[in-house]
């Protein structure tokens, strides 16, 4: 199990990361608990690539962390 977590960032970076409606939807979905990327793609209604880019922004800001399990990547809130 490999866990990916970014170093803590500034409040400015967190607020900027939350500035997109799609990223807010991802955060709201993750508020109910850990989710696989496949679940998040459906929740946000965007393609895989776009969803992954939004998740990268959230991870870089320290809002979420990821955990790879086999072929799947799971995300959870860190704030």
Description:
By secondary structure, the protein is α+β, with helices and mostly antiparallel strands. Helices cover 48% and strands 22% of the residues. The chain is built from four helices and four strands. The chain has helices spanning 11-17, 21-30, 37-44, 48-60, and strands spanning 2-4, 35-36, 64-69, 72-77. The chain has a four-stranded antiparallel beta sheet. Strand 3 and strand 4 form a beta hairpin. It is globular, with a radius of gyration of 11 Å. The two termini are 21 Å apart. The model has no long low-confidence stretch (mean pLDDT 90).
Indicate the topology.
Layout: E1 2-4, H1 11-17, H2 21-30, E2 35-36, H3 37-44, H4 48-60, E3 64-69, E4 72-77
Brief write-up:
By secondary structure, the chain is of the alpha+beta class. 48% of the residues lie in helices and 22% in strands.
N-to-C SSE series?
A: EHHEHHEE
Output the structural class. Answer: alpha+beta
- Quote the beta fraction: 15-25%
The radius of gyration computed from the alpha-carbon positions, rounded to a whole number of angstroms, is 11 Å
As laid out across the biggest beta sheet, the strand order is 1-3-4-2
What can be said about the biggest beta sheet?
4 strands, antiparallel
**What gross morphology would you assign?**
globular
Percent range of helical residues = 40-55%
Continuous helix count: 4
Span between termini: 21 Å
Mean pLDDT: 90
- Low-confidence spans: none
Number of strands: 4
